[in-house]
Amino acid sequence: MKKTLVIHTGGTISMKENPDGSVVETDSHPLSSEDLLKSHSIEEENVFHLPSPHVTPAHMLTLANYMKEKVSSGKYAGIVVTHGTDTLEETAYFVDLCVNTAIPIVFTGAMRSSNELGSDGLYNLICAIRVASHRKSIQRGVLVVMNDEIHTAQYVTKTSTSNVATFQSPQFGPVGMVTKQDVYYYQKTYHEEIFDISALSKNVLLLKAYAGMPKELIEMMDPAKTDGLIIEALGQGNVPPSIVPAIQHLLQHNVTVLLVSRCYKGIVQPTYQYEGGGRTLLDEGVIFANHLNGPKARLKLMLLLENDASHQEMINAFKD
Ligand code: ASP
Question: Where are its TM segments located (predicted)?
């Protein structure tokens, strides 16, 4: 029987709480010795041991390459990754874009450290292993399992700072659930395109739009050192007129400017033709990105730029 590979990368799931309430990193993974885990056929590896705010796209690429090697060995029925919850959705989406496999890949984490009352780490890990070793999870792309719910890497986001039900997919909801007996899916999932890259060299920045936003925030960017800018725009994809000339300047210097919405539901669309309105921005060459939040759109744009995608290819890549 093939095993499930569990890859640890750090985060609260591998941390302990001090008597004063502060949370510290542990040297080894504190969950590995648990009896509950012994009843599952797993193999464990530590790829890095970091709080997730320390994780960079370079770490994500290291992890994706490591996972590609493990997948091609043909030894595993599925892979679980434990990760800090702060940037879990970004790493999960990056892996979704870079690792091409039918076997289930499931990310999980914890909101409470391993020795805290009501700790959710071991429970989430067991659920993630059950999902990753389930035949119904094959060919679904990268999944995130927390708090009895199954989400896709593309749509899931951390919604609460401390609640164990923090991971939600605001637009479409979870794709499945885990019960004591079984794993259930009630939405079809589709897998995104795959990027084959060996390095990450592009500088893509992210800003959130707000009323009265000063142009200096964008003017500070050196177009010679900037490959792309994601703006979490207002509503359907509009920005304050104050920043329009700075956006035009970036576009004239071949910096890709991409809009997502700062609303967490709905899609962006070029509707308004006033200054700073989406329709006007589209005519200037700004690209609209649907169904992704700012940090995930940034990762996808980094990969597209790395592959020298044309303007039209980028429009297509962010349309659906
Ligand atoms: N700050 C922690 C981290 O992301 C939170 C967690 O793991 O839940 O590493």
Answer: none
pLDDT tens-digit readout, 30-73: 565 456 677 779 999 999 999 999 999 999 999 999 999 999 99
Distance of alpha carbon 234 from alpha carbon 308, whole angstroms: 29
| Separation between Cα atoms, residue 183 and residue 107, nearest integer Å | 16
Q: Which of 9, 12, 162, 163, when mutated, tests ligand 1's pocket best, judged by the most ligand atoms within 8 Å of its CB?
A: 12
84 Cβ below 6 A of ligand 1: yes
Q: Nearest CA to 90 among 132, 58, 44, 46?
A: 58
pLDDT tens per residue across span 118-140: 999 999 999 999 999 999 999 99
- Expressed in angstroms and rounded, the spacing between residue 11 Cα and the centre of ligand 1 is 5
Give me the pLDDT at residue 26, please: 73
Q: Does residue 108 sit in helix, strand or coil?
A: strand
Report how far apart, in Å, the C-alpha atoms of 36 and of each of 29, 63, 105, 125 are: 15, 26, 21, 10
Burial of 175 (0-12, 13-18, 19+ CB in 10 A): buried
Q: Would the pTM of this model clear 0.90, i.e. be above it?
A: yes
Order of strands across the sheet with 287-288? Answer: 204-208, 228-233, 256-261, 287-288
Q: Ligand 1 within 6 A of 111 CB?
A: yes
